[in-house]
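Sequence in, structure out.
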Amino acid sequence: MAVPMSASVLLRRIPQTVSRISRTPIKPKLGSRCLHQTSRTIPSVFSGRRPALPRSNKITAITQPSRRSIFIQTEDTPNADALKFRPNHQILPKDFPSPFLEYLTPRSTLAPPHPSPLAAQLLNVDGITSVFFGSDYITVTKDSGTPWPHVKPEVFSLITETINQGQPIVNTVENKSGEAGQEGAQQDSLQYDENDSEVVQMIKELLETRIRPAIQEDGGDIEFRGFHDGQVLLKLRGACRTCDSSTVTLKNGIEGMLMHYIEEVQGVQQIMDQEEEMAMKEFAKFEEKLRQQKGPDAVASTVGKGSLDTVEA
């Protein structure tokens, strides 16, 4: 006969019974769903095929190079035979020693230290006589007998093609001969020099800050060649080099300003190269011959040049 347990003994054994029940593992039934069971088949990582990336239109768009749009603005100059082309692109390389380059002959476009394929192509166009590169513009000068409608489309095409293809506009090569093939290839003549006198420094400062910006707007530039016996020696470049109003610019504009601010300045003289002096003499002879043929009442027929551009047989 079993001995009945007291209530206190029964209460003490209940926690032990509960503890044994909680430690007993519960085996899942075959039909029940557990976390580690799945009805889908997991693909093996070592299936022998590399997973392919999904095709995306965005990836294709990134790999395709974008074509840059070129906008070229043209500006008239005081010289009727010179036109300024301003593309939205840098012309001279950064940190270039000079603010301009000028190509006057086809040979200069191939000579060191700064040959230019674009200048060579432009000078190969019938009627074009010189090419001038500024920091962000190109000035093209033609002869007086060639109309701009015959020249301008080809100039546009050559500039656009060069920029779109990413070709360098100006190259730099070693100059073994020591001769400058281009005008302006040396350092800037208006650059500060500690060896300059006080008067020369003031002249350079006025030319740099007050005069050069106006001449560059007209498609040209200016060079300082020296100061002797009160005379400032200067040379005009680009569109101003062959402009009929260059003498007026020197006398009324530059000379007047320099004499107003610097009392040591007594005048301004324009320096011409030997080739330019010969060309001016030949041009004067040609003009005189035309006047003799057409008579004293002949009127200039070329706009902006004051020249008589036809010769009667």
